[in-house]
Predict the structure.
Amino acid sequence: MTDNPFTGAPGREETTPGVFSEAEVGLANRNSGAFLEMLSLDVTPVGAHYLLTHFDVPLLEEGAHRVVFDGAFEAPFEMSLEEVKAAPKVTMPVTMECAGNGRTGMKPRPFSMPWSYEAVGTAEWTGTPLAPLIERAKPQAGVVDFAFEGADFGYDKGVGHAFGRSLTPEQLADLEVLLVYEMNGQPLLPQHGAPLRLIVPGWYGMASVKWLSRITAMTERYQGFQQVETYRFRQAADEPGEPVTEIKVKSLMVPPGVPDWITRKRWLSPGKVTLQGRAWSGAGVPVERVEVRIGDTWHEAEVEAPLGRYAWSGWSFEWEAEPGHYRLACRATDTNGNVQPLEAEWNLSGFANNTLHEVEVFVGD
Amino acid sequence: MTDNPFTGAPGREETTPGVFSEAEVGLANRNSGAFLEMLSLDVTPVGAHYLLTHFDVPLLEEGAHRVVFDGAFEAPFEMSLEEVKAAPKVTMPVTMECAGNGRTGMKPRPFSMPWSYEAVGTAEWTGTPLAPLIERAKPQAGVVDFAFEGADFGYDKGVGHAFGRSLTPEQLADLEVLLVYEMNGQPLLPQHGAPLRLIVPGWYGMASVKWLSRITAMTERYQGFQQVETYRFRQAADEPGEPVTEIKVKSLMVPPGVPDWITRKRWLSPGKVTLQGRAWSGAGVPVERVEVRIGDTWHEAEVEAPLGRYAWSGWSFEWEAEPGHYRLACRATDTNGNVQPLEAEWNLSGFANNTLHEVEVFVGD
């Protein structure tokens, strides 16, 4: 592969404000977001959960699939799907968000999948806790990383690699990481990682490796492309940057009224309107407050108990809508005092934008 | 609604070659295409079938839902879902394609959802034939149209309307139209039209009205917005145009090798490669021939029997790949002698582009 045409960063043009390149639109066609109107549902239906797929979806045979525990383990082993399913079973609602959600709201706009607000969803994931399996494999002294490798392979900036990520022993001890084979009570679909994937609750989606094939204990830091080259907060390309990890506090609103098909602006009749939506934060921290902006005034919304330790809360606010033109917005605060900022904190790859969700609404008379 | 802000055509800018507007990217984020790599599967998995949603997805309660047969019927009635399910049950594989698939390949590019190749899928739809129910409702003499109305409502060019379409009595007699409540053996998902939708096999997707609520027999031509204002082949905005109906002959290829994440260009090793894909045509006409272009030479592919009267055929071709840079393409011919054109026939809204699927491939050495 001497003259690999993918060396460098093909397709990664400088972005132009207000217009998008063919490569960006190609990514938007291939990847799919949630329907904001479905934020009224506790659990996102199958097929309406966001999907970000780096390479091709591998079509794996469940009967033939193995997950291999190898590297610096005293007792390495491999498991069939049958064996994974025979292990203790847990079902957990988890809100997952793409690290790139909100990218188009950053100025200048970083080049990649041009998400606006829609790369989030909550599913009921069923699987088995990872920690006891790691324990069974007996990590050797000096293990500093566990690497998780998927069956999906492709090129990014000229580097061919299977999608892989890692977690430290400390992170694994903190997080309730699962090996998952069901989503919303059904076998995983191919595009969600069938037959087996990782779920790292409370972290952005890149950590939840799909099509999981290999778990490697490492006595040196894992240097996988998706761990060290992407998913970092950087201001410039030559910095190592800080890793993207826990989801930041955020909220979204079900757009009220009815849409214009092209612009998605909203039209509604005056009178009582229930504004509602969802709010979440990272790694088990609950949301304690949601505010709704109408005109220049912020109002306190009612916040429901979260659906689970790692899943979103519903919120609602009764609005007596008067004729006019509004840019509604919502803003969440978590119990650690983190609040959504009014301006995105810019970074080179456009990660973790948790500024306000704004919805343009016309109330008729 | 005197000062409706959606009057006119908000967001419908002139398009610019090579770049896309925010409105176009918004549509690409909201609507979702198939994964071309899943063309290796006979049936598209739930959640990987393309979705084009004009307004918001209505979340309807199955228990409360009724489909009303009204208008110029002698014996109008309404049915619950339970009653629809008690009627004779049929399961049919149907290949559905969005009328706008391929729009970005037209020059100049018409403004709307910027599909390239991916707005197609094949599902196993389960429901009951519509014809006997129409008969039961006894259309009056002089009925010229049956109108089908969904529960989804919004604005398009300033016109508020529920999504609706119509078929003539002659069309209904020709086509095996179904009232459908299951997709791939599971209850319809909200985004696919739950709890009840129309399937008009062999026609582009706009005919298969989702969230079906009302079937009205009409003694005058149906004038619904989605029937007379959109989904027409026009050269200029002031023409009435010809209606978009049956799917045109087309084929797609599973992109061989592995992708670059951004450009989706492909990399593969030299040697034997099975090129494969799917081919289909409209309204029950089978595909009889698929050709594959490698370099400047066209080769005959093997074509399988279609999956069903209204569903695609698999095709394959064994390629002995030599190092080089290729733009592979495929081309289908149906038994009526229709063949995919080398140039798209341009029309104002960018409908029914059935030119060749091209895939850029690098074979290493």
